[in-house]
Amino acid sequence: MYDYSLEESLSIWEFNAEHWDNYMGDESNDFHRNVVRPKVTELLDINKDDFILDVSCGNGNYSAFMTERGARVVAFDYSAKMIELAKKRRANFLDKIEFIVADATDEQQLMALQRNSQYTKAVCNMAIMDIIEIDTLFNCVNKLIVDDGIFVFSTQHPCFVTLTDKYLTSHAYYDTAIPNQPKEQCYYHRSFQDIFNTCFKHGFTIDGFYEEAYGEKETPDIIIVRSKKIRSIV
User: Where do the Methyltransferase domain residues begin and end (predicted)?
Assistant: First the structure.
């Protein structure tokens, strides 16, 4: 389906990790703070009793943001370098955040994130488009969270953010995410039906949705989706 391998994508993120961490700093960039974070946080509805899985956590900024609102967090990324930088940047939060190196496409690694209590929620900020295969992620998140638990994810808008003229066909392309990024990263385009049907296939309904734009323009840059785990019937 895609021209680029998992190994290639990972090597690029390892190479870009330090530049990414320096650029995002402690508070992330303006785009994340003003376009991504507000609606993700609204749909996630963080509270002091939450135990949250942070998927593809980057340098841990949103993980720390959640702990400041009372949550406990397990945060993972497939880039060992990124996790190393997250631990350094968020050293004061390591009693509330457990940072782990794990691959979002590897079922064994994802299920190893199970802890004594189930996660109440999961979140994935602007990484679905960076993950070569998402079925495994959605399947495992459903198993890892409680009944009626929610998985909130944000990703590039599939209609308006792509460098090709293809929409219905899943495809990959190279692009950058932040200024002066050393290497272009692999992006994986999926249509709305691909994304939503992945939710439905793995036991989620969708009960919250936003399209958000950077600045005053009418064309949205991202989507934010709240998927809710369907209660198990015994």
Answer: 47-164
Pairing of strands 145-156, 171-175: unpaired
Whether the CB-CB separation of 206 and 150 falls below 8 Å is answered with no
Which element (helix H / strand E) includes 40? helix 37-44
What pTM was estimated for this model as a whole? 0.95
Q: Are 54 and 75 in contact (CB under 8 A)?
A: yes
Burial of 168 (0-12, 13-18, 19+ CB in 10 A): exposed
Integer CA distances (angstroms), 134 to 49, 59, 86, 196, 198, in order? 28, 21, 23, 11, 8
* 3-class DSSP assignment, residue 192: helix
Tokens of residue 42, six digits: 């609204």
Per-residue pLDDT in tens (0 to 9) along the chain, 234 residues: 466 778 888 999 999 999 999 999 999 999 999 999 999 999 999 999 999 999 999 999 999 999 999 999 999 999 999 999 999 999 999 999 999 999 999 999 999 999 999 999 999 999 999 999 999 999 999 999 999 999 999 999 999 988 778 899 999 999 999 999 999 999 999 999 999 999 999 999 999 999 999 998 999 999 999 999 997 654
Q: How far is CA 132 from the centre of its chain?
A: 13
List of domains in the chain: 6-229 (3.40.50.150)
